[in-house]
Each structure stands twice: as structure tokens, then as C-alpha cells.
Amino acid sequence: MEYVYSVLVMIGIYTIMASSFNLIIGFGGLISIAHPIFFALSAYASALVNLHWGVPIPLAILLGTLFAAAMSVMLSLPSLRISGDYLLIASMGFQLGFVEVIKNVDFAGGAGGLTGIASIYSGPSRSPAFVVTTLTIAATVVSVVHWLTHGEYGRAIRAMRDDEECFASLGRNPMAIKITIFAVGSALAGLAGALYAHYFQFLSPEQFGITQSALILTMVVVGGMGSTWGPVVGALLLTALPQAITFLNLPPSVMAPLQGMLYTGLVLLFLFVRPAGLVAKRLGQ
Amino acid sequence: MNAPRAAIRVTDVSKRFGGIVVAENVNLELRSGEILGLIGPNGAGKTTLFNLICGIHTPDSGEIWLRDQPLSRVPVYRRARLGIARTWQNIRLFPTLSVIDNLLMGPRRYPGEALLAGIFGARTRRADAQAARERAEEILARMGLSDARDKTPAELPFGQQKLAGMARTLMNDGEVLLLDEPMAGVEGQVYETIRQVVRDEASAGRAVCIVEHNVSFIRDLCTRAVFMFNGCIEQSGTMEELLASDKLAELYFGGRS
């Protein structure tokens, strides 16, 4: 049963990750691969302020989330001033660089990982309580992303993505919208990271590599970029699929490359066959 | 009594792209309530001048003024918020938005653009949104586009796209209106509507500048015209004076008959 709970928590966490990444790439048209690093930075920040300074866990999660947002501005502000392409390049450096930093910082546990992280809940109902919390937060995040991308703000996001120069000539500030979207998306990734840290109570820098970027991108592409429900379906499918493969009892040396091939293969397949993803957005949405 | 200061003043503006001169010591005044025609052959620098005024290009030298405010350090979006509105030669409606949503992107103050202000000032945002919607409906009716309000730009014939582009610009409700070839490719009712709208906007006190190849349209509407060639202002005056110019006659009509 514990296994089922952990899969459900992961579905919740990946739904937050995929929905928030969809806000950035699918709605905002901002191409970045650094999404997992904001997850990691918040996970570490939340765990460490709780561990070292005794900050209560809910406040630690909030601080971690805000830390991820602040760090995202550090990445987006200088790179977006030049052009959108620079965000992709800078995000690669950001992702790879910070993983190395985490590996080499002793107080964050170094390459061996950070252990002894406190859990929000304790006792026999810990896991079900976590499932309810994570899935509720995931549903809230999906609603927030939906609210942001529809209505007046969503209209501005779509117009900006359609024609940035014309958008600016109408009095709208494209930079402000891009930085806001990127910060909100990264903050939500941070929220997922902090939840993860206080559920699994262990963090290792190896978890936040490029493979994670690929996985989240796959969820968004397979589910449907720029649609509210696409990332939810993608997260559900791609959290369940690797779990299904584990029942094949393959050795780890085969499993890891197999998963990588699966993600890459799915992205290629969907981009060729069904670029709109499983949940194709309605026209004009 | 002093003459009122021009809405837009372009003073000694020059701009080069590499070795190509697109504006050379351009001096221009655009006054409130007037319709100024900007004519010249392709590549003369007319659209570039619009781009300089609305901030897409920054001049290498010289200054552009809105009333008494120098604009060189003001970014594109702020210039629009100050009341400089423009249309585009190739219309550039947002393809994924409906016509009404295209118009709703146009007001100087966009409801909810600043996310936090939008969340915490929900009442102001709703009031702004309501006001913008009413204004958009009014402009659509004036343009004869009410039936097209929910269509996407691709679903409209060219003439209506042109009208929708102009309608979006009118949402700015500012002091300056820059129209880039509003008549290119239109005829009949659309032509008449645009002509009427331009007249009305100028009568309402807006400073209107039109880039146009259609000489009869310029002659019919403009109080004053400027002839550009190779990035320079060759001549300015009434349209009749310009038409007397040999150079213009040569460029437009292949010489004076």
C-alpha cells in the first residue's frame, strides 16, 4: 500500500511540475530546460532552513517556493533582455551549474545527498495524509495555471506569443509578462520540490539532472502543450509508465537507458504524429 | 499668441542600418487635429520614420518629442501608453485571438496586466475591463465589424482585417495616430469607412500621420504632406505644392507631361 501512496504522491508532484512547465513553455513560449533545478533549489532550501534553523515546515515550504521564484528572476532577467533564445542557453548552464554546486556544498549533504529531512506528517496516517495534501495542491496549481492563462492575463500571454513587437506597440510590456510567467512557473516547481523533500525525506543531486528536464518536457509534449489538462494527462501517464516497466524486473543497467529512450521516443513520436498532444487544445483557446 | 506646440516633433533624426541610410537629418512636426500625408517611393524611409516615432528603432542621433517630453529613452510600450498609436502595413492582428480580443489588447491601460495589481485591485480591474469592452463594441460598430467580433483574423476578408487593425489602434484613444498604408488593397465600402474614420479622428483633435501611395487619398484628406526620398525629407507643403515638384512627378508619374 505504501508503494501505491508513493506513486500517487509522485503523480501529484509531477502534475505540479508539468502544469507549471506548460505555463512557461506551452503558454508563454519561453524555452528553458532548467525547470528541475528550481524544484531542487526549493527542495534544498526548504529542507535546510527547517533542518538548521528550525523553521516550521509550512513556512519552510513557502520560503523554498519564494527562493525558487527569486532564483528564476536571476536567470530570466539578464537572458530575456537579449532574446528568448538566450534563455535556453542560459537555462542549460543554470541547470548543470547548480547541480554541481549542490554536489559540492557540504551543508547541503554534498554528492551523497541530504538526509534526515523532517516530514510534515507522522504516524500511521502519514502517507494517506500526504496523498491528499499533494493531490489537493496539484489540483489548486492546475486551477491557478488555468486561471492565469485564461481571462485578461491569458489573453495578453497569447498576444505576446503571437507577435511580441506588435504587442509592445499597443502599450503592453512583454518583458514583465515573460519574467512573471517564468517566476510563477518556477515558484510552482519549487512548491513541488519542497513537498517532495518533506515526503521522501532524502534529496540527492543526481535526481535533478537533464533526464528530469526531458521527463517533464515529455509529459507536456505528450499530454498537450498549451492546454490545461494536457500536462495532467502527461504526468499521469509518464509517472505510471516507468512504474509499469519496473514490473519487468530488468537490471538497473538496462532500466535507466530504457527510460531515457522511452522519453525521447515519445517526444519524437508525438511531435511527428500528434504535435498537439493527447489533449489537443480547442481552436482559439 | 504662440502656435500650439506640435504633438510630435522629430528633430535632426538620423538612422543607419550598416551602410544603408534610412533617415538623414529628418525634421518633422505633427500637429494636433491635422492629417499629415507621408509619401515617397518604396524604401524612402516612411515606415522607418514610424518605427522611430513609436520606438521600435532608436535614432543614431537627433531626438523625437511628444509635446515637451523627449522619447529616446522611452521604450515602445511606454510610448504607446503615452498615446502614440500605430497601424502596420501588414496589419499584424494576433492570429490566435478573436477580433474583439484583438481590440481588447489595445487600451493604454490594460486591465490586470500587472499580475499582483490585478489580483489585489480586482474591482478596478473589472471596471477597466468593462469600460474597455464597451469601447471596443462601440468602435466595432463604427467600423461595421460588429458581426465579425468573435471571428479570428484568418476568417475575415482582407478589407475587414484592415478595418480590425485600425479599430485596435483606435482603442489607444491617444493623441497621435500613425497609419501605415491604410488604403493599400482596399476599395468600396472599406475605403469609405477608413476615410471617414481618419477625418473623425483628426476632428477629435488627434494628430494623424498617414503613409500612403494612393495620391488621390492623400490629396483628398491631408492638410499637409511630406515627400520622403532616400531617408530624407525632400519637400513638404500642401499636396498641390508637392505635386508641382518635378522629382515627385518623375518618381510617381515617370516625368511631367
Task: Write a concise keyword list for the protein shown above.
A: 285 residues, mainly alpha, 11 helices, globular, B: 257 residues, alpha/beta, Rossmann fold, 10 strands
Structure description:
The complex is a heterodimer of chains A (285) and B (257). Chain A is globular and about 55 Å long. The mean pLDDT of chain A is 89. In chain A, 75% of the residues lie in helices and 0% in strands. Chain A is an all-alpha fold and 285 residues long. Chain A has helices at residues 2-27, 35-53, 57-82, 84-104, 126-149, 151-162, 164-169, 174-200, 210-223, 230-246, 252-273. Chain B has two domains: 1-83 and 174-257, Rossmann fold, CATH 3.40.50.300; 98-168, no CATH class. Chain B is 38% helix and 23% strand. Chain B contains ten helices and ten strands. In chain B, helix 5 (122-143) packs across helix 6 (158-170). The interface between A and B is medium-sized, with 26 and 38 residues.
Total helical segments of chain A: 11
What is Rg of chain A? 18 Å
3D shape of chain B: globular
Q: How many structurally independent domains of chain A?
A: 1
Average pLDDT across residues of chain A? 89
Radius of gyration of chain B: 19 Å
The CATH superfamily of the largest domain in chain B is identified as: P-loop containing nucleotide triphosphate hydrolases
Distance between the termini of chain B: 44 Å
Percent of residues of chain B in helical segments?
A: 25-40%
Tally of discrete structural domains of chain B: 2
Instruction: State the distance separating the first and last CA atoms of chain A.
Output: 40 Å
If classified by CATH, what would the architecture of the largest domain in chain B be? 3-Layer(aba) Sandwich
In short:
Chain A is mainly α. Chain A has helices spanning 2-27, 35-53, 57-82, 84-104, 126-149, 151-162, 164-169, 174-200, 210-223, 230-246, 252-273. Chain A is built from 11 helices and no strands.
